[in-house]
Specification:
The protein has eight helices and seven strands; from the N terminus they run E-H-E-H-E-H-E-H-E-H-E-H-H-H-E. The protein is an alpha/beta fold and 250 residues long. It is globular, with a radius of gyration of 17 Å. The mean pLDDT is 93.
Length: 250
């Protein structure tokens, strides 16, 4: 595992880290020498990712957590401080979908999307920011979606929650810019996550058709962009990086 100078003393938390973009981001950070706390609800999958990171020579620990629980996200940040002594980076990736046109939408699904995608991001930042301040500054990336930049028919609840994440990111970035805390968002397009791969080939092809590149992303491609925002984009805050194969370029 090749480390990046200057990052081997850094510590990160990643939510939704058991599969997909979250797992790929945790692996990418660990490969650069960052110690990582992986949080998610599914403990079995979480343990598998941690085992893979440690086998490759990285430092990682699992923290089963539900981001809709304030106590859980506080415990997540506490785990980073107790195990590794500090917190420098946070990736708020935990999310869920909600499908259906407005009049067909299950309101419970809407409430769940807002609770996980929006409230979970807000609670996570409230727990993370004091720890970043104690470390002298740091960086947060919130995982929004291309659906946080444009409307998507049949996904009004999901896109509403991701638009909320974008607005939250921009506002809180302005609140903490002078404290040395950068807060950005990434807006992935269609990505080959567990959710997408559970669909039919026709559904995947339809989603790929939205991209100018006519394909979906691999989780590692999104993870690379997240790591860039976390570690290298040192004059970026309040930015939303579309990582969508050109979907929103036109």
């Amino acid at each position: 595992m090749s480390q990046t100078p200057g990052l081997n003393s850094k510590v990160a938390v990643v939510t939704g880290a058991n599969t997909g973009i979250g797992a790929a981001t945790a692996r990418a950070l660990a490969a650069r020498g960052v110690s990582v706390v992986l949080a998610a609800r599914r403990e079995d999958k979480l343990s598998e990712v941690v085992a893979g990171i440690t086998k490759a020579g990285g430092a990682a620990v699992a923290c089963p957590a539900d981001v809709t629980s304030e106590a859980d996200v506080v415990r997540m940040v506490g785990t980073a401080q107790e195990r590794f002594g500090r917190l420098d980076f946070a990736v708020n990736n935990a999310g869920t979908s909600a499908r259906g046109r407005l009049m067909d939408l299950d309101i419970g699904a809407f409430d769940r999307a807002m609770a996980v995608n929006f409230r979970g991001t807000l609670l996570s930042m409230r727990a993370e920011i004091p720890a970043l301040e104690r470390a002298g500054g740091g960086s947060i990336v919130n995982v929004a979606s291309v659906g946080g930049l444009v409307g998507v028919p049949g996904l009004s609840a999901y896109t509403s929650s991701k638009h909320a994440v974008v607005g939250l990111t921009k506002s809180v970035a302005l609140e903490y810019a002078e404290q040395g805390i950068r807060i950005n968002a990434i807006a992935p397009g269609g990505t080959a996550t567990e959710m997408l791969n559970s669909g039919t080939p026709e559904q995947r092809d339809f989603l790929a058709s939205y991209s100018a590149m006519k394909r979906v992303a691999e989780p590692g491609e999104i993870a690379a962009a997240i790591v860039f925002l976390l570690t290298d984009a040192t004059f970026c805050t309040g930015t939303v990086l579309a990582c969508d194969g050109g979907q929103t370029a036109g």
